TrEMBL record, chains A, B:
One GO cellular component term noted in the UniProt record for this chain: cytosol
Keywords: Amino-acid biosynthesis, ATP-binding, Diaminopimelate biosynthesis, Kinase, Lysine biosynthesis, Nucleotide-binding, Repeat, Transferase
Protein name, per record: Aspartokinase
GO MF term list: aspartate kinase activity; ATP binding
PROSITE patterns reported for this sequence: ACT, ASPARTOKINASE
Record-listed ATP binding positions: 7-10, 180, 185
Lineage: superkingdom: Bacteria
EC numbers on record: 2.7.2.4
Pfam families, per database record: AA_kinase, ACT_9
């Protein structure tokens, strides 16, 4: 008997009909002899609708109340899934995050799980019940207030529960049937991967792949919980995310895929004094404003005046705020100028095989050169190469790299209904 | 400094705009120097929409999950009201029923409050906060499961909290600005009452007045919590419901109003053996099927065969089920026949003044006679007279009684927007 944790996203629960389809799958998993714990997101666009209402009522709503509001969405889908399961003749019991023992920090809107004590869930499983747990939410240990885990937090709930219950697998259901070598909407011959390791998934998620939330993969890796990415619209086994980079034999290491990201902006600070602490001042100011920076580049300084240029990328949404902040510091005479560019795209090649493929960086650059695409920034990690290009070149760059490294197949990828997200 | 509990119904919270209007009123109450506790129903039609979703997913949903589902509605309105208050510069904190200490029996869907331990609410009030409590919901003391109090349960939450916090008044806000001498949609010159006692309100609520939920008035009477019925669309002081029948001096006792009810059906059982226990069998069978009976009449038995007829009324919704049940018993040879009639209406005259008005029953009958309306059933209590008439005569009967007892005024009653409910 295996213990399976299944997480269903909002698109899998967008209507009563879809909820019944999901319930049928859950009951089938149970009848196949498994213990089943289900984590549900809010139905369809519920969260966006609630956010919209909040915006109308108070454009700067208190975070504690925002959490109280948003968690209602998961309670609704939770209860409906439990009802649907019962109509298929199985016994289900729903739990709020609090009832399932999801204990978090007290930071409303973006709390972190500090412990999971699923005693009531374990007890219900022992009584042969299917357990339905509201995703995305927890309770602060000290204040007993309801908290949320940030966007995509239901994935993290599922992995954390799987870890605490020592589950055999954590299945993440959405409208996509696995992890692909590229976004099939951009690269039509993208192939579904059967398996990849945690590190590869982390790099893909960090580089723009939306299929799994970064934090949930970090959690799964830390507790070694195998994840399976599947579609609630098919019976395809999906993609397994498991195992560590170190455990992949060199001869089996391959290139995993190409990911693209057009959600960032690029900021360049010109003429920064190349003395200790100047860069720190920049990044401290941004960190205090809670702006996450992604890529950072600093080249050697000019010989003439001992100044250097610092370039970094950050979420495009935060760009104007970052620019304003840095322009203020510029007025204090810290540096020469600040440049802002939000027409960029980031294309990355990821794969454990990179370690054993000499010349990947050269081939990467050549593939873009052949399309006459200029590389504006360039960074690498052990299993990733990333280039920043013009945003309008992004799709072309992804296809060129996908071709160059022979990641495609003969068939056009199947994309299921509703893959618009 | 007074402690005011305010309860806002769904029609007062049907949009972001209405929520902001309600928040403004709450903040004004607080700024006037009061401690304020607010109980919110779910927004507009939320509860009906959730019920509809549940019906689609499972026509016979498990009661525990139904409660988990429905309570989400109050959490949403709760959080939104707290946010709106914060936008007007006051500090609010929202509480679920569980967080506010509303402890109930374990009967899902129709739980009763067994205790209210509002320690966290009291503490927040002491910290100068406005407290927002989700209505209609509580938590079962033993299982820690979420429960609901049945339709209209938010009124009961408000009164129970007012009692536990020793509040000075419990204000019930809806789209109607008070208790009227009759339903203004039926009797255009109906007058708003300034004050009535608990017993009068109980009789009106039991006889079809929808303005307050019977159980909440019973609770208010038991704990002597003054209630005020007000409109969230105006600044009218509304109607005060307070004090006991016994405390009204005879010279101040008046007739309160006329109420109408067309939600019942009438069932007559013919030829019941007039021996001890026969009537008990009928009512036991109905009670076991959870059918509430209202009026019951049994006349003297026939001399010839020692049988009698029993007539009773019950909710029209339950009529077909009651009829089926009784027809089965009839097959066992218990009685001659069962008659069913769902075209009836109930008109009642209520008021403490009845005790000191001789001849009210005569005048009541004459008023209906003058309109050529036949009385089919007739019962009285200390402060109420009720007649069952043809449904199509109901409005006419109400107007005739209202005129006869000079309950009207010179003006046509003001009915506010949205009084459709």
């Amino acid at each position: 008997m295996a213990l399976v944790v299944q997480k269903y996203g909002g698109s899998s629960l967008e209507s009563a009909e879809r909820i019944r389809a999901v319930a049928e799958r859950i009951v089938a998993t149970k009848k196949a002899g498994n213990e089943v714990v289900v984590v549900c997101s809010a139905m369809g666009d519920t969260t966006d609708e609630l956010l919209d209402l909040a915006e109308q009522v108070n454009p700067v709503p208190p975070a504690r109340e925002m959490d109280m509001l948003l968690t209602a969405g998961e309670r609704i889908s939770n209860a409906l899934v439990a009802m649907a399961i019962s109509s298929f003749g199985a016994e289900a019991q729903s739990f709020t995050g609090s009832q399932a023992g999801v204990l978090t920090t007290e930071r409303h809107g973006n709390a972190r799980i500090v412990d999971v004590t699923p005693g009531r869930v374990r007890e219900a499983l022992d009584n042969d019940k299917i357990c339905i747990v509201a995703g995305f939410q927890g309770v602060n240990k000290d204040s007993r207030d309801v908290t949320t885990l940030g966007r995509g937090g239901s994935d993290t709930t599922a992995v954390a529960l799987a870890a605490a219950l020592d589950a055999d697998v954590c299945e993440i259901y959405s409208d996509v049937d696995g992890v692909y070598t590229a976004d099939p909407r951009i690269v039509p011959d993208a192939q579904k991967l059967e398996k990849l390791c945690f590190e590869e998934m982390l790099e893909l998620a960090a580089c723009g792949s939306k299929i799994l939330v970064l934090r949930s993969v970090e959690y799964a890796r830390a507790f070694n919980v195998p994840m399976r990415v599947r579609s609630s619209y098919s019976n395809d086994p999906g993609t397994l995310v498991a195992g560590s980079l170190e455990d992949i034999p060199v001869e089996e290491a391959v290139l995993t895929g190409v990911s693209t990201d057009n959600s960032e902006a690029k900021i360049t600070i010109l003429g920064v004094q190349d003395t200790p602490g100047e860069a720190a001042k920049v990044f401290r100011a941004l960190a205090d404003a809670e702006i996450n920076i992604d890529m950072v580049l600093q080249n050697i300084s000019s010989v003439e005046d001992n100044t250097t240029d610092i370039t970094f990328t950050c979420p495009r949404n935060d760009g104007p705020r970052a620019l304003e902040l840095l322009s203020k510091l510029q007025d204090e005479g810290r540096w020469a100028d600040v440049l802002y560019d939000d027409q960029i795209g980031k294309v990355s090649l990821v794969g454990a095989g990179m370690k054993s493929h000499p010349g990947v960086t050269a081939e990467f650059s050549e593939a873009l050169r052949d399309q006459n695409i200029n590389i504006e920034m360039f960074t690498t990690s052990e299993i990733r190469i990333t280039a920043v290009v013009r945003e309008h070149d992004l799709a072309n760059a992804a296809r060129a790299l996908h071709d160059k490294f022979r990641l495609g197949g003969d068939e056009v990828a199947t994309v299921y209904a509703g893959t618009g997200r």
